[in-house]
Design brief:
Strand content: 25-35%
Number of strands: 8
Number of domains: 1
CATH architecture: Beta Barrel
Oligomer: single chain
Largest sheet: 6 strands, antiparallel
Order of helices and strands: HHEEEEEEEEHH
CATH class: Mainly Beta
Number of helices: 4
Shape: globular
Radius of gyration: 18 Å
CATH topology: OB fold (Dihydrolipoamide Acetyltransferase, E2P)
Structural class: alpha+beta
Distance between the termini: 69 Å
């Protein structure tokens, strides 16, 4: 009987984890269709390097980042992304990007995103000193843009992101 209760507990935990997991509407089946659909969906699409990354708690107080406390992640291309681990429990990440190229949105030299990185909100976390292709919405009332793990945003060191750029160039040329 005890095993039966344990099995029910594990099943309930798995079902509740699935119910709070991120669910995304799919975008395209290949880079070209993904770019075409994303171009319609997102008002801001740019290539930018992260120049500032701040973590905030739920009350939007800045949590200090310990440069020595870094977690490394290897991505599909074999590249390593390094994320600073903030002290405390971060709720938001504010990232300033230096724009390298822009396909859609206002022509600016920088953009700032504010993304919820709390559990199960589907926010995308950006690593410092990396170049990203960003598909974003906004700005919100504070002037921040936002994106999520459901967007096709990602680091340029990920090989599949580079596949988007020729199609973005093509869409931009046809929109002009």
């Amino acid at each position: 009987m005890k095993n039966h209760h344990a099995l029910l507990f594990v099943a309930a935990m798995l079902l509740s984890a699935q119910s709070i997991a991120c669910t995304c509407a799919p975008l395209g089946v290949d880079p070209e269709s993904t770019v075409n659909e994303a171009y319609e969906r997102y008002p801001l699409i740019f290539l930018g390097e992260t120049v500032s990354v701040e973590y905030l708690d739920i009350d939007e107080n800045i949590l200090y980042i310990d440069d020595e406390n870094v977690e490394e992640y290897e991505i599909d291309s074999g590249a390593i992304l390094k994320f600073a681990l903030p002290h405390g429990d971060p709720e938001y990440q504010i990232t300033v990007f230096d724009v390298k190229d822009i396909w859609k949105g206002p022509l600016q030299s920088t953009f700032t995103t504010k993304v919820s990185i709390a559990c199960c909100i589907c926010g995308i976390e950006f690593a410092a000193n990396q170049t990203y292709l960003v598909y974003a919405s906004g700005p919100d009332e504070e002037g921040y843009y936002y994106t999520s793990a459901c967007s096709p945003s990602g680091p340029v060191v990920a090989g599949w992101i580079k596949d988007h750029i020729p199609y973005l160039d093509k869409v931009r040329a046809s929109a002009q």
